[in-house]
Every structure is written in structure tokens, then in C-alpha cells.
Amino acid sequence: MAKRNTYDEDEELEEKFNLHDYVRVAHYLIPYRRRLGIALASILLGNVAMIMGPFLLKSAIDSAIPQHDMTQLWQLSAFFLITLVVAFGCFRYRIWAITEIGQDLLKDMRTDIFTHLQELPFSYFDSRPHGKILIRVVNYINTLSDLLSNGLINLISDLISLVVTLIFMFAINWRLTLASLVLIPVLAVWTYFVQVAQHKAYRELSNKQSNLNAYIHESIAGIKVTQGFAQEANAIETFDGVAEENRQSYMKAIYVQFALWPGVQNISVLTTALIYYIGIQHVGVIVSTGTLIAFLGYINNFWNPVINIGNFYNSLITATAYLERIFETLDEQPEVKDAPGAFALPPIKGDVQFDDVSFRYDADSPMTLKHVSFHAEPGQTIALVGPTGAGKSTIINLLSRFYNVTQGAVLIDGVDISRVTIESLRAQMGVMQQDTFIFSGDILDNIRYGKLDATEEEVIAAAKVARADDFIRQLKDGYHTTVQERGVTLSAGQRQLIAFARTLLADPRILILDEATAAIDSQTEILLQEGLQHLLAGRTSFIVAHRLSTIRAADQILVVNDGQIVEAGTHQELLAKHGEYFQLYESQYKMLEE
Ligand SMILES: Nc1ncnc2c1ncn2[C@@H]1O[C@H](COP(=O)(O)OP(=O)(O)OP(=O)(O)O)[C@@H](O)[C@H]1O
């Protein structure tokens, strides 16, 4: 299980980045190898065209001009013009092709990470702020676009152009060429030291960016509480602290990153100076004027790719700090997953049994549920009651296998649910959380979420049975009214009615319902009760119940306290016992009844 984390805590990396991860990155390029090849070919062609420049110049200075050969000069000029046009065309194509490949790559990576997130269990989302997950899918991946497309292609083309330039340089004058390379080892050592510091700085920066994102996300989610308690100043102060840490680590990272640049720049200038010095000393002896001028042109051609490779390396180190987080998410193993040899749960009748189930949320925390056993017949309604924090929601979460039991087994129609595929299990269950989640879109689509291929007529029929039809028709555009994410424009009761309709449409054999505690006006309450009765009919239902009417109507009431089932029976049976339920009834429900 992932280590728990908050916005003011840097995340520890579970596994450091290693060379194998670069191979994984390369895998993303495989589908684009053909397009990358064409882009690369165009770059090479462009580079060859560019490289011809100094060569043509040399011919002009050393041969055409001294011999006053105008025909040769015109030919050289025409050839030069053609090389410029070719280089320009290739350059344009490259920008277009690389941008497109880069965006495709980003989409692939983003899809992979999003798809993986869909499979991760509740425990993963419980363990860290959602803002820290968000930043991986959006921002971290953005930083890779340029590196993977532009950067990589440039690297290859730069390497090739470096080799070609070196060949030309050696061909022109090997002594000057060796002199040009004399400072390269110094550069290598400098680069090594910078990259160690840079990786560390960027890892810290990625953490601070993640913290900032987490705090912003949390603040927006909690804005109503912040404003309700007039805590805006406090929120701003906290934000300021997190943002300042982000600023400082950014400046540090940039400071280190830019340390590479002066190194490369100084060495390139020193090398050029050295060639001037040697060349001028020996002009006419070991080099002709044309050779020296051409050579100085090649020195530029030589340093450009070296500088580019240095920049690529720089971006690679920066991106590594983000890549390791992306791979960490991709490598997060779903704790709840299909067991080897899992089979599809056949259509169920709805017999449910908890067989001596114990459960804890974290490996190092005490058991939340202890030896819970009960049995529900198909079609029965089971109400779970008990004090807050007793473990009622935990029981129903285990039923849908949102978490794996620590000990014991949950059986449906006699089959241990840990042996069946999660999809086949959840497809036969309807889970309604206390706070109904509404997706942005229209009401129709929100109800249809229960069965994506449902027709409009089916949706409306479900809404009618769930008693949601009346209020929906009164909305501005009826079923086509647009609602915001989380359904902020709807009342709590309306959201619940939509959830009823959604679940009815899904028609699950087992229904799990965390009954809302929110106060609802008596008219909506009647509607909800009616809707609920239709929902419960003919399916095994588990309700974390807060309304007395629901509890009384249940076939079985399970009284949960401190992670155990302390009493079980019908309302009348349990009242007659004068035990915990009786006390709960006296202290909470009786008052409601009166
Ligand atoms: N995701 C979680 N991670 C760790 N501990 C949790 C998690 N969810 C609940 N708990 C703990 O497990 C215990 C049981 O919680 P649970 O939500 O099952 O109680 P409940 O009976 O449903 O309470 P309520 O009536 O207030 O909803 C509590 O002590 C709670 O703090």
C-alpha cells in the first residue's frame, strides 16, 4: 500500500529511476518509427545541405576567385542557393512532423496513465491528495513532449551531423581537428557534476510543484468550508508558504541547470580561439587561407550539435525527475485485482455471506473489522446501524471488493468473491454512495451512467419509477438540462433521486446504499421513500441506514459497534432484547419517530 501523504509533505520515491526506464520511454516511440524515420531523413537532408555551405565557400576562395573563373563562381552560387532552399524546406517539414508526433506521444502516455488510474483501488486514492495524481497526468507529461519528439530526433540528427562534420574536418586538416577536440574531456567532467546536482534539484522541484497542485486542488474542493468559516486569510497564508517553497526550488533548479551552459559556451569559444591562434600562426604552412576559413565554419557546425546535445542532456535530466513519477504511477500495482485463474461470476441470485471477516486499512494499523459474520437471503433488505466510525461503510465496501478482506471470506451465492473477476462482480452490484456524484453533462446522461446503452425511453421510465421524473420535468430543459460536476445546481434530495434512477436502470442483483443523512424536506422525503421501495424490490440490499422508516422495513438489522456485529434481528426482535439497538432507538430514532 502506498505511503500516506499530504500537500505539505514531499512524496518519497518508491523506486529510483534506472536505465531500464529509458527503454520503456523508447517503447512509446515504436508506433511512430516510420514517421520519425521520415522526419529524421528530412533533417539529415537539411543538414547535408547546410554542411555544403563552407565547402562551397572554400572552393570559391581557394579556386574560383584566384582563377577569376566566373562560370565556376556562378555554378557555386547556384548550388549554394539550392542548398538553402532544400535546407529551408526540410526545416519546415521537420517542425510540422515533430510537433505532430510529440502530441501523439503525449496522448498515448496520458491515456496509459489514465487507464491505469481507472484500475487502481480506493486505497490508492485514499493515500494521497488528488492534486498530486492530477499533476502527473497533466503537467508532468507535458514536460516530456518536447524531449520525446523534438529532442530525440534532434539528438539523432545532431549526432549524425557531428560525425559528418568531424569527417569533413579531418579530411580538411587533421591537426586542427585534434586541436578542436582537446577540451572535450573537460566538458564531459563538467557535465557530469552539473547533471548530478540538476537531477536532485529537479526531483525536489517536482515534489514542490506536486505539493502546490495538491493544495490548490484541496482548497478549491473545500472552498465552501473556507468561506463558511471565514478562513480565506488562513488559506492564502498556507498557499503563500507552499508557493514560496515552489518558487525557491524552481530558482535553485534553474540555477543549477544553467551552470551547464557557461561550461559549453566557454569551451566552444576557447576552442575557436585556439584554432584562430594555430591557424594564423601556420597559415600558408600547414593551412591555406581557404582551408582556415572553411575550418572555422566547420568549427561552428561542430559546436552547434555539441551545444544541442548538451541541451538535450539537460532536458533529459529535467524530464527524468518527472518520468520517475509517471512510471511510479504506472507501476502502482492494483491491490485489488483479478486473482490468477479468476472466472466470471455467473448471474447471481443475491445470497450474501460474510464468513468471519476481519479487515484493516493499513498493514500497520489495528483491525477495523473483527470477525464479522452474517448471512443475507436473496431479496432481503439488510440495514446496518451503529455509532459513527463503527465500520458500517467498511462492511459494504468489502462487499463490492473495493478493498480485499484481511481474513475470512465474502461469499456471493456460495462463491468467494476473491476468486471471481472484479468486473463480473461489480457489474451485478449497484453502489450508491452517501454523496451522489453527478458528472458534468445533462441529466439524461447522468442517469444513463447506470446503463450506457439505455434509450431515452428507458431512462425516463427509470426516472419515473424512482420518483425523479417530476422534478426533472420542472427543470429548464427537462432531461436535457445541463448540470455541473458534482451537481452543484441540484439539491441533495434531487441528486439522490437521480442516483436512484441511475441504479434502477443498472438493475443490479445486489444493491448497496449509504443512505444520506442530509436533512430533506418532507415532500422530497416521501418521494425518496417511494423511490427507495421500488429500488429495493426484488434485490438483496444493504443499507447503511439513517432513517427509521428504512430500518423498520428491513428484514434484518445488523448493529455494528467497534468493528463487530453486536446484535442482529428485526426491529421488533431487537427492541425486545433491550440491548444496544434498544439504546440506539431510544437515543436517536425514537425522537425522529415522534
Ligand atoms: N479509507 C480509510 N482509510 C483508513 N481508515 C479508514 C478509512 N475509511 C474509514 N476508516 C476508519 O475505519 C473506521 C470505520 O469507518 P467506517 O467509515 O466504516 O465507519 P461507519 O460506521 O460507516 O461510520 P459513519 O456512520 O460515520 O459513516 C473508522 O475508524 C475510520 O476512521
UniProtKB/TrEMBL annotation:
Keywords: ATP-binding, Membrane, Nucleotide-binding, Transmembrane, Transmembrane helix, Transport. InterPro entries: AAA+_ATPase, ABC1_TM_dom, ABC1_TM_sf, ABC_transporter-like_ATP-bd, ABC_transporter-like_CS, P-loop_NTPase, Type_1_exporter. CDD domains: ABC_6TM_YknV_like (cd18545). Its main location: membrane. It is a multi-pass membrane protein. It is found in: Cell membrane. Residues 38-318 form the ABC transmembrane type-1 domain. GO terms for cellular component: plasma membrane. GO terms for molecular function: ABC-type transporter activity; ATP binding; ATP hydrolysis activity. The chain crosses the membrane at residues 36-61, 73-91, 152-172, 178-197, 274-299. Residues 352-587 form the ABC transporter domain. This is Uncharacterized protein. It comes from Lacticaseibacillus nasuensis JCM 17158. The lineage of its organism: Bacteria, Bacillati, Bacillota, Bacilli, Lactobacillales.
